[in-house]
Amino acid sequence: MLNLGTDEMAKYPFLAEAGKYLKDKGFTLDQFGTDPDLMPIIEKAYHRIEKASTGKIYHSELENLEQLDVEVFSFLIAVVLLKLSGMNTLIKRFSLAEARRAEKFLEKDLADFSDKTKEQLAVRIIKDLFSVNVQKHKEFFVIPVSDYLKHAVYFHEKEWKLVNRRIENGKVFLTSHESVRLIRKELDSYINSKIQEVSTPSMIDALKKPVEKLRLLSKKFSVPTMVSTEYPPCIKHAIDELNKGENLSHSGRFMLGTYLLSIGQTVSQIAPLFKNAPDYNEKVTLYQLNHLAGNSGSGTEYKCPSCEKVKSKDLCYATSDCDGIINPLQFKKKTTLHA
Amino acid sequence: MHEKDLKLVENSFKKYYFDHFDLIHVPERTSEREFGYQKFNSGMIRHLSIKSDEDLRLMLITEIPSDVYCSNAYYSFPTLSMGEKDWKEADLIFDVDSKDLHLDCRKEHTCLKCNSCGEVALMVQTCPKCNSTKLEQKSLTCKNCISGAKTEVKKLMNILIEDLGIKKQNIRVYFSGNEGFHVYVTNSPYQKLGSRERTDLVDYIMFRSAIPETFGMKKYKPERSSFPEIIDNGWRGRVSKEIFGSKSKRSKEITEIISNGYSVFQQRLENMKTDIGVRIDPNVTMDTHRIFRLAGSLNSKSGLSKIFCKNFEKFDPFQDACFIDDEKIDVVANCPVRFTLKNRKFGTYKNEKISLPKYAAIYMICKGFASTA
Ligand SMILES: [Zn+2]
Ligand SMILES: [Zn+2]
After folding, report:
1. Burial class, B137, CB count within 10 angstroms (exposed 0-12 / middle 13-18 / buried 19+)
2. How far apart are CA B224 and CA B258, in angstroms?
3. Would you place residue B365 in the very low, low, confident or very high pLDDT band (cuts 50, 70, 90)?
4. Between residues A96 and B184, the one the model is more confident about
5. Nearest to residue B281, comparing CAs of B163, B154, B180, B170?
6. CA B269 to CA B203: how far, in whole Å?
7. Considering B281, B287, B316, B326, which one is annotated as catalytic?
């Protein structure tokens, strides 16, 4: 495994062997509940999870050595809290947010022309964890076509098709952003599986309260709303993709936006759905939704595309419940009719 | 196939396998491959293991298969059912068939055979003899078609080497034994790719799913500087050559492309597929569990051999893949198309009884244009 310094560990805390890391630093879990210097870290850890649960990325202070340790500890304690709470929805949200956080560092380190060691570490993480060999070539990052394909086939957008990439002598040329984007899904599942692997420690008094708070917090996400069960499968799938942080295609966004607007949701209700999208930009999302709603420019209100159109864009996931409908909007009516 | 024809063809195939065993070998890593074969008028037998050249020879002489196949995949247990074989990796394979090129000459050597009465005619709606509509397309291939297929193979080789970084010595080209070529890539970084990844490789090679942005044409405010240069690598270079032709025309062309707009350019890329994309059979390359005709074996659609092209440029299937002997055979031939084998011209025949060298007789019988007299 990689041999990391504290600053690197702070960026990629999921690489730490939790128990060993604490021990090496001379700490036990109990101390976090009793030592007044360490107790704020529990609060920080809770905050880290809470932030992740809302789909936001936890912002790190990586200024001095003390803060660096706190960064790693708060991650490790967060994992302990999550394990004790046993709430899988929170673990999922947490690993996704942590993956996004690490992604930002990886991208920056990869493109760091001033610090060779940072770049090398990023390259090694990508290689060791995800078997992608990255090499720097002027302003590009080149990876073997075969490595590229293993990851890129999971993307739906045409720009990820090999034919739309710059290829030379068995290598694909990418930007640092694209290189890291390529392993997003795996980074998320890697962090998730690392957390799953950790054995659940025994409860200590100081953790009881935050764990209880986490259980309450998770209720917010585990209750399925009535509305969502009535969505047609194509819409459900699109929402799932967004929740997983996948990049929904333009036509997918169009379908989802027009559908939700048609069933009476407002732009401000819909916009948060897109928050997990890799290229999320609040202003752009609002602009696009307002455009679909007919609140801007020409005032044209866009209609939800027909099933046929949805199918042609590979967005259809029809079930037998869809029999006989020609537009996703008819789905709800039909199920209520037969109920 | 009729009993008498069957006897003749089987005997000729047996003789070929007896006389030309030097041409047919088990492939490398034999024990990891799945073999299969078909007998005349019978179904496919798969999931076989053949351990050595001797085993193969024994099978060929005793079973006299019409067609012999071997997996491009390597398995831990090749004889078990598909789910239990334990797939390890597979050579990349490509099938270029002149039938898929739809060249103009095709109509001159494609005919229809009536499944009701056996009559053969050039393109018609109903059988001129019995009026049946149960017609089957049968084709011989011509020099022009073979040279068209060669052009595709050369385009393919160029992409494999220049774009995909495959070493030339790891690429082998075979005549398919009928109307095209089979290309094998071994020991490449692509061995372990699954079907999904191979599908993307296929799209790359066939120039499918290309978007205008890749070639510099954006929907909003396209920039002249992002259009490809003739010296660019890969598809950007090839597209550039195709649309600009020469460097001097580049500027004028770009102006035109921008003024015509995004969707016109998109359509233009779409149309380019047939010219600059390589016309391979996508299903063959995507399939990682296929058994593929074994090199050196005879193709029962023609009686010609699937054979390695030592000198691809000069390769002439009608000469170099024809190994049946020239003993005189009496046949009744009904063949409205002329063909050449071993530098001898044959046809056309209109339901006539003739005496022909065995290789020509077998060729026509396999194609369904003749019967033993
Ligand atoms: Zn007829
Ligand atoms: Zn032809």
Report:
1. exposed
2. 8
3. very high
4. B184
5. B180
6. 13
7. B281
SS3 B343: coil
Please choose, from the candidates B44, B39, B50, B38, the residue with its C-alpha nearest in 3D space to the C-alpha of residue B79.
B50
Q: How far apart are CA A328 and CA A330, in angstroms?
A: 5
To which H or E segment does residue B61 belong?
A: helix B53-63
Q: What is the mean pLDDT of residues B291-312?
A: 97
Name residues whose C-beta falls within 8 Å of residue B114's C-beta, 6 or more positions apart in sequence.
B120, B121, B127, B129, B130, B132, B134, B135, B136
What spacing in Å lies between the alpha carbon of B175 and ligand 2's midpoint? 16
For residue B186, name the pLDDT band (cuts at 50, 70, 90): very high
Please, what's the b/e burial string for A166-176 (b: 16 or more CB within 10 A of its CB; e: otherwise)? bbbebbbbbeb
Angle at A102 between CA A100 and CA A106, to 5 degrees: 115
Q: Which residues pair with B89 in a beta bridge?
A: B74
Ranges in chain A, pLDDT < 50: 1, 223-227, 333-339
Average pLDDT, chain B: 94
Q: B-chain residues within 8 Å CB-CB of A153?
A: 196-197, 199-200
Instruction: Calculate the CA dihedral of residues A52, A53, A55, A57 and round it to 10 degrees.
Output: -10
How many CA atoms lie less than 13 Å away from A123 in the CB half-sphere? 16
CA distance A288 to chain B (A): 16
B154 vs A250, more confident: B154
> Averaged over B280-288, what is the pLDDT?
96
DSSP per-residue string spanning B73-117: EEESSTTS-GGGS-EEEE-EEEEEEGGGG--GGGGGSEEEEETTT
Token reading at A105: 């560092």
> 């976090």: which residue's tokens?
A32
Residue ranges and CATH numbers for the domains of chain B are 3-100+142-204+280-372 (3.90.920.10), 208-276 (no CATH)
More confident residue, B245 or B317: B317
Q: Is A116 buried (19+), middle (13-18) or exposed (0-12) by CB count in 10 A?
A: exposed
Closest CA to B168 of B149, B182, B183: B183
Asked whether the beta carbons of residue A170 and residue B165 sit closer than 8 angstroms, the reply is: yes
Return d(Cα B326, Cα B330) in angstroms, integer: 12
DSSP line for A138-162: TTEEEEEHHHHHHHHTT--SGGGSG
Task: Assess whether B67 carries a catalytic annotation.
Answer: no
Residues 164-183 in A contacting B (C-alpha not used; CB under 8 Å): 164-171
Token pair 């009026």 is found at B131
Query: Rounded distance, CA B207 to CA A194, Å?
Result: 40
The two structure tokens encoding residue A4: 């990391």
Residue A87 near residue A79 (C-beta atoms within 8 A):
no
Chain-chain contact of B166 with A171 (C-beta, under 8 angstroms): no
Active site residue B19: no
